[in-house]
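Need a sequence for this fold. Nothing fancy.
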């Protein structure tokens, strides 16, 4: 035993076993991988092994004692990699991908969140490393200075490859076309492990960057056929109803629809927004079955979807990785067809989410970022400017714009981890014991109050009455890591089905001169906004490559795809490979042909949208004869760059 412990190979196997156990424990306790049969359970145990053998095995090529040092170094790197995923997952319920890594400036701003996401018990994750180092120090004296026979490391690497092949084949039996078809990273980690996922992700990225080079003008034709076929023609009454009106678009950060009318300990959380929903005199129409369709890009995905009617990417944020693509976005169309000036107002640094680059390609004329606002310490929390001063200081900026304008106002305070100064909190936190969930209600209330104040100021400035105003939630605020707290608050189990239903975010629209319809039941998603806005302007959406359809149209397509290939219709939902009846929440054992066909349609739609982004296909497309591609050299953002402009 002692001999074995003090040999190089012994040391190697101890490292493998400890890292293997650690990886498995992390899979089990940190990630929510939905293991639902014994094959998946078995693969979860098996899958770290191949990566351990291959990566740690490489260390055995080093000579003498250096092999031990290399084992420790590689083991530490693998631990660091896994732990980074743990922290990332706690917030995003998702794994790190290469594109998210290139968004490091965004990680920087997440500083506060990261501290909040780490816990003391995380120290357990380095226990094996400490043991390993101690063992190395104690036993290295017995190690020979020679290189071990080369056939040993080769054998180990071969073993790693064999284990991986077995792993992949078993995974393919349980889930055919795992690596080809899947839209969901969760599956790949579940079947192949976090390390293999990282390799898959890297290969995927090389592939997508070559896609642009290989794409040519014929590729856009099949996309065009699809979107023209899906197109829904405008409703006569609404077509042109808001022509030439100012458009004010309000982004409610992390706001989910369950907050509407929700009472915390008997008290309404968002009384002002509730009044917009219920008070018919205010002429808002509320879509209670409206869904966000974002992925890893979060806010950036919401912006991308709401201005392009293209899906975000399965990995990373299109704003960052496809920020230099050609777009034919809503601001450009409004400018060219309606003489609009467009502006984004947001109290954060202009480079966050690569906004100062991608906005040029969207044709956004003005970007009032944090450099335009008073960012003194008492006005800032978490990511940036608090919502109340943000809205206050935005009024003169709006007034300064040439009309008609399209202004996108992005709030920020109601953002994970939902920090709020005591003076700003006018409602008690919830009492689930899950701190970010508990505070979620306080920042929601703050956002609600800031919106009320903004509406008052808009009315005073004379901008309110004659403007088209729409308000939407960008993405979920409470991930499925908080199911315990959520089930307490909603008094029901948070099943997969329920979780999908919770992806509702509010959509409220007021069209000047048009009576509000109160609460409507139409199913719709963020992808539907661009065609809706175009038709309200009296601009036909048909010539443009848009994957959504006009929500006011009688032909509006009311199935709502999610980015991972799941989707929801008024009658049933398709979630994680299972069809559910919306009324009962029960599984549908025998899905109809129509249901299965819709799944294919959704997958095809996502694939085509991805093709547009990966191939940068809009560079080959001319929507109308007089279309002028956006000249990005003309845009400058940030107060300091005004002179250049
Ligand atoms: C940052 C803000 C937050 O400017 O938009 O982005 P999110 O973390 O929600 O994607
Ligand atoms: Mn957001």
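Here you go.
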């Amino acid at each position: 035993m002692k001999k074995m412990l003090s040999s190089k190979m012994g040391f190697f196997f101890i490292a493998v076993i400890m890292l293997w156990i650690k990886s498995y424990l992390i899979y089990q306790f940190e990630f929510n991988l939905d293991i639902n049969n014994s094959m998946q359970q078995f693969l979860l145990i098996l899958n770290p092994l191949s990566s351990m053998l291959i990566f740690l095995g490489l260390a055995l090529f080093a000579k003498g004692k250096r092999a031990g040092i290399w084992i420790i170094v590689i083991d530490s790197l693998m631990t660091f990699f896994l732990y980074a995923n743990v922290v990332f997952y706690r917030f995003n319920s998702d794994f790190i991908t290469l594109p998210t890594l290139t968004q490091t400036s965004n990680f920087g701003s997440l500083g506060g969140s990261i501290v909040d996401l780490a816990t003391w018990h995380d120290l357990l994750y380095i226990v094996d490393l400490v043991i390993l180092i101690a063992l190395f120090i104690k036993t290295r004296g017995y190690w020979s200075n020679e290189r071990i026979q080369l056939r040993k490391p080769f054998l180990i690497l071969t073993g790693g490859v064999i284990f991986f092949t077995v792993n992949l084949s078993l995974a393919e039996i349980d889930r055919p076309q795992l690596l080809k078809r899947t839209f969901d990273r969760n599956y790949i980690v579940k079947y192949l492990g976090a390390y293999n996922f990282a390799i898959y992700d890297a290969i995927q990225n090389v592939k997508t960057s070559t896609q642009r080079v290989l794409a040519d003008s014929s590729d856009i034709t099949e996309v065009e056929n699809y979107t023209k076929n899906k197109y829904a023609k405008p409703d006569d009454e609404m077509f042109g109803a808001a022509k030439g009106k100012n458009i004010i678009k309000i982004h409610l950060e992390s706001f989910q629809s369950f907050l509407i009318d929700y009472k915390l300990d008997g008290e309404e959380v968002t009384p002002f927004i509730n009044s917009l929903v219920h008070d018919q005199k205010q002429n808002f129409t509320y879509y209670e079955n409206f869904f966000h369709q974002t992925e890893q890009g979060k806010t950036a995905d919401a912006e991308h979807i709401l201005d392009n009617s293209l899906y975000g990417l399965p990995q990373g944020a299109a704003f960052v990785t496809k920020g230099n693509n050609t777009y034919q976005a809503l601001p450009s169309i409004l400018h060219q067809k309606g003489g609009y000036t467009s502006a984004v107002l947001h109290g954060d640094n202009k480079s966050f989410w690569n906004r100062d680059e991608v906005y040029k390609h969207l044709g956004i004329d003005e970007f009032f970022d944090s450099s335009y606002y008073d960012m003194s310490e008492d006005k800032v929390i978490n990511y940036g400017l608090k919502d109340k001063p943000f809205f206050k200081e935005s009024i003169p900026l709006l007034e300064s714009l040439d009309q008609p304008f399209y202004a996108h106002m992005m709030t920020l305070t109601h953002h994970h981890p939902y920090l709020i100064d005591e003076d700003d909190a006018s409602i008690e936190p919830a009492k689930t014991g899950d701190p970010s969930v508990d505070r979620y209600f306080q920042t929601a209330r703050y956002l609600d109050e800031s919106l009320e104040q903004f509406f008052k100021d808009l009315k005073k400035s004379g901008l309110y009455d004659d403007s088209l105003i729409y308000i939407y939630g960008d993405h979920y605020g409470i991930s499925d890591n908080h199911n315990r707290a959520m089930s307490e608050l909603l008094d029901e189990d948070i099943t997969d089905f329920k979780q999908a239903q919770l992806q509702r975010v509010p959509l409220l629209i007021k069209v000047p001169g048009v009576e509000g319809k109160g609460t409507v039941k139409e199913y719709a998603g963020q992808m539907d906004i661009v065609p809706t806005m175009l038709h309200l302007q009296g601009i036909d959406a048909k010539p443009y490559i848009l994957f959504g359809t006009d929500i006011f149209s009688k032909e509006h397509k009311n199935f709502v795809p999610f980015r991972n290939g799941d989707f929801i219709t008024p009658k049933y939902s398709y979630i994680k490979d299972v069809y559910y009846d919306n009324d009962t929440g029960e599984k549908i054992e025998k899905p109809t042909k129509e249901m299965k066909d819709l799944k294919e349609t959704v997958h095809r739609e996502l694939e085509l949208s991805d093709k547009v982004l990966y191939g940068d296909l809009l560079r080959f497309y001319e929507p109308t004869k007089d279309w002028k591609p956006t000249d990005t050299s003309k845009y400058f953002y940030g107060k300091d760059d005004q002179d250049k402009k």
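For context: The chain has a mean pLDDT of 94.
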